[in-house]
């Protein structure tokens, strides 16, 4: 992995207009993710958590304020291959095999596929899909597709990893399994991770820091540190301290 | 973990397929037997409907004539098909990449869509020579269908995959190359499927305008006076077979390609909101003005570039002069108005009747699913049948009075409208139907509450679709049979070498068609906007 990079979001506001109405998606939001840290964004629908991620990826431009990835503008960072991203519902190209889907970021960045053949093979191994290299997404289950998406996010050796509700479409049981796998993968890469999620327990289990957001206008209500040691194991899910923290976040969410 | 296909389900599907095809075969045989019986004994319109065996016998006698006619038509149609579709796909890509280009070309696109091909066929014959008129008309007949399909295919992508490309710094072109093009393939192929019969129709219509000696259109025109129904049927069926084969080839190709292109999950994301900051009004007005001016400019450039004498090739100003500035203008205007007064009412009545019938049948097919199943194959078959092949037959069956025009308009409107509506209604989600049903609603109530409102967008789409077809149908009937209206005026002016009138009729019929189309679009936006519905494509 290349040099470590953090994410800096400084006093950002963003407004959308829909059918004549103006919606304040984000108002004066500031957030600092230290290099190598794992941050989770949680909040109700429409609180702007996905907008933060899209701003950081250069998919949207902030009205005011600034967003930096490792000290660079998002568009520069993304086109330099510094970032990796996995979206909700995998977003795989249905006509590309697992291998070819993993190679998509390389095609976009203009990198030579052949030089990454080993990398792709080891990532498929890492997410437990060995033997499915040539399979099309339609032949995989939901959980397998999601793992392809995670592997794809890692193909460029990103120093910053964005995860937009990557397990939103999975059931609770599968989701926990994937959480444990994600933690393992993240520990190996040590990238700076920003996770957008609806699940309180998912956020607490994975993150060093949970950012709780509220809507209208989208803003940060509170930042809560998660003290649990790593690696975190399944028994954490039944730990009373884990539940206490979940409850605390739920209170902020509903406040 | 992979989802296994349920064996029994797949098996049932295959059996259902066999039953459907068996039923289709059986119906076909029944129709043939009845037809043979009717034909043998001359029971329909005094023998205007010959028996299949008689058509076959005639075909055998004429077998020496066919190859050259078929080759000539095929040549024009395929060259036009290739050129028209290449332009259409490139234009579709341009429109998706550049919204400004798309808005500027709106006028041209609507004009090409609305143009009743028979109206410009004499013009193309006047200004171009050799095979060129056929190729151009075939190309024009393909353009709109394929261009629309391309735009729809390129825009209806899985937005999430485009986000992945952009998230790695990819621009419009990368999204186009890596996602849009491949994802649009099935839709584009579907467009080509419809464009193929259109190309055949276009080529034949250009032959009508006065092409050379060979071609099915010339053969048809030459045989029209001989009152030999069996030969007309033979030519019509050969033309249909060519168009149907072309349709089938692309249907098979698209079936192969479609497999891997469907998204595996349903998009759950809300369509992206537009960033704040409205459109510039001045820019908007400029774009609209540009889109109106562009077709006129192209027309002018086309005429000037060909270097055809001004007497023959008129510019937009030439048409204006013919109608308003010359000594003969009042007479020309009177002739034109008289023709319009004959053509327009019957077009409107026919369209209204055809649409109403299609709407009733499609909506009630929700109550009697058997209706759709029995009717759909026939409706689809008529879609591959080049209009031009059926009209002489209808003339034979119904004579040369106004009723033939009316029936042609109805049939031209009814079938495409029925297909659009039936497909639209079948897309109403089951869950939407289950809600009234769960509260014990009767079938009629369910229709009133769900099926009818849900099919409104498709009714408008069907109307838009049929406007130019209806006018084309009426004009062909007038040209060939009734000796009235715009179609006849066009044919007459051709005979009198009245170039000003040829251009004027062509221009006016395109304008009428555009005006109809725009009226429908405005009504559609109003109604659907009020109901909070989206326009259907």
Provide the fold topology.
The complex is a heterodimer of chains A (255) and B (537).
Chain A: E1 7-18, E2 21-33, E3 38-42, H1 49-56, E4 64-69, H2 74-79, E5 83-86, H3 98-102, H4 104-109, H5 117-126, H6 142-154, E6 160-164, H7 172-189, E7 192-197, H8 200-206, E8 209-214, E9 219-225, H9 240-254
Parallel strand pairs in A: 3-7, 3-8, 5-6, 6-7
Antiparallel strand pairs in A: 1-2, 1-4, 8-9
Helix pairs in contact in A: 5-6, 6-7, 8-9
Chain B: H1 7-40, H2 52-61, H3 66-97, H4 99-104, H5 106-114, H6 117-127, H7 132-155, H8 159-167, H9 172-208, H10 216-224, H11 229-258, E1 274-275, H12 281-306, H13 316-324, H14 329-364, H15 369-384, H16 387-398, H17 402-426, H18 430-438, H19 443-482, H20 485-495, H21 499-531
Helix pairs in contact in B: 2-11, 3-7, 3-9, 3-10, 5-12, 6-7, 6-9, 6-21, 7-9, 8-9, 9-10, 9-11, 10-11, 11-16, 13-14, 13-21, 14-17, 14-19, 14-20, 15-17, 16-17, 16-19, 17-19, 18-19, 19-20, 19-21, 20-21
């Amino acid at each position: 992995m290349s040099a470590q990079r953090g994410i800096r979001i400084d006093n950002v506001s963003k407004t959308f207009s829909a059918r004549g109405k103006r919606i304040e998606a984000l108002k004066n939001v500031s957030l600092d993710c230290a290099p190598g840290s794992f941050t989770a964004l949680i909040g109700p629908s429409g609180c702007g958590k996905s907008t933060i991620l899209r701003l950081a990826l250069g998919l949207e431009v902030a009205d005011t304020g600034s967003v930096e990835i490792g000290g660079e503008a998002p568009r520069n960072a993304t086109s330099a291959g510094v970032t990796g991203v996995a979206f909700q519902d995998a977003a795989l190209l249905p006509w590309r095999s697992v291998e070819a889907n993993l190679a998509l970021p390389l095609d976009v960045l203009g990198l030579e596929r052949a030089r990454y053949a080993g990398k792709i093979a080891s990532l498929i191994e890492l997410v437990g899909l060995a033997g499915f290299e040539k399979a099309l997404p339609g032949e995989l289950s939901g959980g397998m597709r999601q793992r392809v998406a995670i592997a794809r996010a890692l193909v460029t050796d990103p120093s910053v990893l964005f995860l937009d509700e990557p397990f939103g479409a999975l059931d609770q049981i599968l989701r926990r399994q994937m959480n444990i796998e994600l933690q393992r993968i993240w520990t190996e890469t040590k990238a700076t991770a920003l996770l957008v999620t609806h699940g309180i327990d998912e956020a607490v289990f994975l993150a060093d820091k949970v950012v709780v957001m509220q809507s209208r206008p989208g803003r940060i209500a509170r930042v809560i540190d998660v003290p649990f040691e790593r690696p975190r194991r399944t028994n954490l899910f039944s730990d009373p301290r884990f539940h206490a923290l979940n409850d605390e976040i739920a209170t902020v969410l509903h406040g | 973990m992979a989802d296994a296909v349920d064996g029994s389900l797949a098996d049932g599907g295959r059996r259902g397929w066999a039953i459907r095809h068996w039923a289709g075969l059986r119906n076909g045989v029944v129709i043939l037997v009845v037809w043979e019986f009717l034909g043998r004994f001359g029971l329909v319109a005094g023998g205007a409907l010959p028996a299949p065996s008689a058509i076959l016998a005639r075909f055998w006698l004429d077998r020496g004539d066919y190859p050259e006619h078929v080759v000539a038509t095929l040549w024009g149609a395929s060259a036009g098909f290739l050129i028209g579709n290449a332009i259409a796909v490139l234009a579709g890509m341009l429109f998706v990449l550049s919204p400004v280009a798309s808005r500027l070309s709106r006028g041209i696109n609507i004009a090409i869509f609305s143009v009743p091909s028979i109206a410009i066929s004499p013009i193309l014959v006047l200004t171009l020579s050799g095979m060129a008129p056929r190729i151009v008309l075939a190309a024009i007949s393909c353009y709109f269908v394929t261009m629309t399909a391309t735009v729809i295919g390129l825009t209806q992508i899985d937005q999430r995959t485009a986000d992945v490309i952009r998230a790695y710094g990819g621009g419009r072109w990368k999204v186009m190359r890596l996602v849009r093009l491949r994802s649009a393939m099935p839709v584009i192929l579907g467009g080509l499927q419809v464009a193929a019969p259109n190309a055949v129709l276009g080529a034949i219509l250009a032959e009508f305008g006065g092409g050379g000696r060979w071609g099915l259109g010339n053969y048809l025109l030459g045989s029209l006076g001989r009152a030999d129904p069996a030969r007309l049927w033979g030519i019509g069926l050969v033309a249909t077979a060519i168009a149907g084969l072309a349709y089938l080839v692309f249907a098979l190709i698209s079936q192969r390609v479609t497999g891997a292109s469907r998204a595996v999950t349903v998009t759950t994301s809300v369509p992206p909101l537009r960033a704040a900051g409205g459109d510039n009004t001045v820019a908007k007005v400029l774009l609209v003005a540009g889109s109106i001016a562009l077709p006129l400019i192209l027309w002018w450039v086309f005429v000037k570039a060909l270097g055809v004498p001004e007497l023959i090739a008129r510019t937009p100003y030439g048409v204006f002069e013919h109608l308003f500035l010359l000594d003969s203008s009042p007479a020309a205007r009177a002739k034109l108005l008289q023709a319009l007064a004959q053509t327009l009412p019957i077009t409107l009545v026919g369209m209204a009747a055809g649409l109403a019938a299609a709407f009733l049948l499609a909506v009630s097919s929700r109550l009697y699913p058997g209706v759709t199943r029995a009717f759909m194959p026939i409706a689809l078959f008529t879609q591959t049948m080049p209009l031009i092949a059926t009209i002489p037959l209808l003339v034979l069956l119904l004579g040369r009075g106004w009723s033939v025009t009316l029936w042609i308009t109805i049939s031209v409107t009814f079938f495409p409208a029925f297909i659009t509506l039936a497909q639209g209604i079948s897309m109403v989600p089951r869950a939407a139907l289950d809600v009234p049903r769960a509260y014990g609603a009767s079938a009629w109530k369910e229709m009133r509450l769900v099926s009818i409102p849900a099919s409104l967008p498709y009714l408008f789409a069907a109307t838009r679709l049929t406007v130019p077809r209806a006018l084309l149908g009426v004009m062909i009937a007038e040209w060939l049979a009734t000796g009235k209206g715009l179609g006849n005026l066009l044919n007459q002016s051709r005979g009198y070498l009245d170039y000003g009138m040829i251009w004027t009729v062509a221009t006016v019929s395109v304008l009428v068609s555009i005006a109809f189309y725009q009226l429908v679009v405005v009504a559609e936006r109003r109604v659907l906007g009020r109901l909070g519905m989206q326009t259907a494509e």
